[in-house]
Amino acid sequence: MPSALPGSLQNADSLPIKYAVNEGDTMNFDTVGNYYEQHVYRQIVNMLGEEYVDDPDFLADVACVTLNSLPPRYIRHHVDMAFFMTGEEREAMEKSINDAITDAVEFVQNRQRSESD
Fold it and tell me: Which of 1, 25, 41, 68 is the most interior residue, by most CB within 10 Å?
């Protein structure tokens, strides 16, 4: 069955970051990202980096589980998000990140234990 998607959209892995809209005009998706990503990565390093420095796969798994448990907050510029957040919202976000990391560590460790049994 032929795909209804244009050829450049059939394989999501090969999507260009810049996508031609009209001749000479492009949409640049490089600036779009999940606000939580950098905060989660930084906090994982702060909380777990020394203990798991020799296990980057564990840290990557924790990052994935953590990010999947947090609501996505897609933005174009980090300063925009920071500008519109109150101090209370920032504190709540940091707490939710820390809680999600703690839960993710437990989840990944339990999965590793069950796979080794």
Answer: 41
- Residue 96 located in a structural domain: yes
Domain that holds residue 92: 32-116
Would residue 102 count as lying in a domain? yes
Per residue in 58-69, pLDDT (tens digit) is 999 999 999 999
Q: Which pair of tokens denotes residue 112?
A: 């590793």
Domain membership flag for residue 17: no
pLDDT digits (tens, 9 = 90+) for 24-41: 676 777 788 898 999 999
DSSP the chain: ---SS-HHHH-GGG--SEEEEETTEEEEGGG-EEHHHHHHHHHHHHHHTTTTTT-HHHHHHHHHHHHHHSPP-EES-HHHHHHH--HHHHHHHHHHHHHHHHHHHHHHHHHHHHHH-
Q: Is residue 59 part of a domain?
A: yes
